[in-house]
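Q: Entry one of two.
A:
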Amino acid sequence: MKVILKQDFDTLGKTGEAVSVKDGYAMNYLIPNQIAVRATASNLRTLEELKKQKVHKVAKEIADTKQLAETISAVALLIKAKAGDDEKLFGSVTSQMISESLAEKGYNVDKKHIILDEPIKHVGEFTVDVKLPNNISTQLKVQVEKE
């Protein structure tokens, strides 16, 4: 029997794939547990339409992410922190602080996407890598000043 998978299944395939399985397996396990549906003509047309919608959705997400990367690369953040006489910070500037500063400017970037080799521990200007979803990356200028 030919079925269309409604969710990823380790031994059979990924969501949306049409696979052939034994009749008993399909009727007694896959279909009752909502893992698959029969591969009828109408279900196959529905599957093709869903694939087209998914392609358009992914393309829109990539375009939005590229636009966000361009706007972030033009932004220069200014972070004020307490520092001693030797320009060394009492604490450090972390990815969380950078993420919060971006959020204040209207850009929602998760701290996990901000890549710091090590926390910033002194006053100055730094270039920080930002890796966004869909394998898009950009750089952000961060200016740390003494408070």
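Q: Entry two of two.
A:
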Amino acid sequence: MNIILIISDTFRWDYLGCYGNNWISTPNLDRFAKRSVIFDKAYAASFPTVPHRMDLVTGRFTFTYRQWEPLPKDEVALAEILGENGYTTMLIADTPHILEDGYNFDRGFTGWEWVRGQETDRYMTDPAEVKFPCSPHKLRNPDVVKRHLRNISLRQGEADCFVAQTMLKAARWLERNYRQEKFFLWVDTFDPHEPWDPPSWYVDRYDPGYKGEEVIYPLYGQSDYLTEKELNHIKALYAGEVSLVDRWVGVLLQKIEDLGLFEDTAIVFTSDHGFYLGEHDLVGKSIISSGFLEYVPLYDELARIPLFIYLPDIKKPVRCPFFVQPPDITATIVHLAGADHSSTIQGSSLLPLIHQKRPSSRNFAVSSPSLVHGAAGIPRITFSEEKWTFICAPSSLSNEEPDGETKAVNGISRRLAGVKLKKLREKPKHELYHSPSDSAQTNNLFTEHRQIAQRLYSRLMQFLKEIEMPQKLLKYWQNL
């Protein structure tokens, strides 16, 4: 069976109509979802961009022993497994962080193509002067925005947008290769990740008549530096990006249809994580200030992800209510390819869940930033199950806590915030939320339901031991 994997970075699950959104236009993805298996409880594992791709490439929960780093030579890569089983493998991506500066996520692919210019990509040097769309102090990194504005300076129309270029290149590759005996195509677009720059007509649909500053790459942290109108407009900018992605993923899906590939091709659409747009009084997906990075809790707006899987033998829409995570996607792709790499892959194939409609042995999800620096950066581990979400904060915080340096978030090195380096906004605390009555996760019930928290905590610790988290790191979370 041919296999196509489409990843759209920073795509919030709740901005799609098939997950209940009623104000953003996503007709192509919603139409695709109607002929696919829709996973209602798909969650990120390793967070954010590069760690997520590490999980997908390896089929492992890598947050326990890897961070934002190049793909190590000792990791068995998905493309290598498929290549050994006779697949022609192709990577087409505009996501820069998995390809720039020797990150090597192209390893094992028969061919690969990088659509240049996104975010940190050192692509263009002119024009020398660029005009910021808003006050620089509202931008997460003015230098990155300046680079981005140079990189897009030659655009002439919508087809020049990165997601459009990427999907068109994927469509053209399929035109040339669809008769291959069997192929695996990985299509990876950075949109709707910021900087948000969809054509104006996409944004005007969601915030008509706006005359203020365009905060296209907001500073990560507390949202109170934005006015109410500015915060509303960044939601419109993001929504415009979502509709832009939908438009051009739709072009690729139409090409797949035109070539008759729906008859013998499995197709996966997913993302790596979401983005806070004012929820929990936050913007972004971490707190960045003065060269430091502090992680924030991974609530559902960040941790939950969209996931559709189309299989030729599924003739009507199916909703899967079971918990799934990125390593399971890898295991599923390997299963579809008829390969076996169970000795290295920690995920479980989703085919039994789909065909037999029975849950796997893992009826929960664990989402986390990298834990390799211990408590530095204040990483919280999110444990999600049917009715409860438990967010486990480091239990050991002292002046001896390790610190470190990370490239998490956009590849730029930052010191991880720790008690020796930066006064914390507040001491991190455990959190517990009852999902049926508090989907927004705003009412922390940890004190009232400590027994439930203890049960979830025990299961989390068991899981971390099962995936062989080193004891030297596990100690930071060993006291409730």
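A: Comment on entry two: Residues 2-355 form a domain with the Alkaline Phosphatase, subunit A fold (CATH 3.40.720.10). The longest strand covers residues 2-8.
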